[in-house]
């Protein structure tokens, strides 16, 4: 672990929940419980008002599959290597057709021997949730074990990469590529926003990457385009997830909604979990800004 990461980790521990004890916002909690009532699947919601230090935790300490939200821990792993001078954002890399992988993203359509830089790999991984570049970035970060060590250093006990990670076959069979809790993923995004992951400089750059999402039909669609927000979604047939930190005019807030075992496994804007995510985002925007 780098000296910089160690110093920020110790700071994190000493501050106790980012400097303030969090209390439950009972009014908002009731509104969210009403909103998610009747959802046909398992849902976990975490909300944290970063200005007033009030939170809502509804099943947010339960473990969920990350789906593509795992790309945030991978991002941290890559920047740890950049901080150590082992990688550079502008370094040239070469794509090989043997790396082709299905699912979301654009890199699978690149020609063999195409030249690309690390900055582009990161941008594609996050903005377009590109699977080829995500697997590539995971390897560049030192693999799942290295990334999981960073998560443990940040006191994120349940946030782990499972795929292609020694000793995690059982977890991979249960949760897929990665696993986390809604609260831990919201906390990780908050730590990045506060400059407490790897270094202030690295956190700032990571936050910039996380603020450029192509897939904006869910929670992001309920935030005015003039307002900065950092986010990441993840999807499987029976899973829909989103974590988002909003730099709202009246104060930052972060929320995450994770679902699993969903009855509605359709793909499209009318998917029940995606509709629920938009409703939650709208509820929070109105609650904090009106």
Automatic annotation (TrEMBL):
Listed InterPro entries: Beta-lactam/transpept-like, Beta-lactam_cat, Beta-lactam_class-A
GO BP annotation list: beta-lactam antibiotic catabolic process; response to antibiotic
All residue ranges annotated as the Beta-lactamase class A catalytic domain in the record: 44-259
Enzyme class name: hydrolase
Signal peptide extent: 1-19
Catalytic activity, as annotated: a beta-lactam + H2O = a substituted beta-amino acid
Superkingdom per UniProt: Bacteria
Keywords tagged on the record: Hydrolase, Signal
GO molecular function: beta-lactamase activity
EC number per UniProt: 3.5.2.6
Claim: Hydrolase is one of the keywords in the record: yes
Family stated for the protein in its record: Belongs to the class-A beta-lactamase family.
Protein's name according to its UniProt entry: beta-lactamase
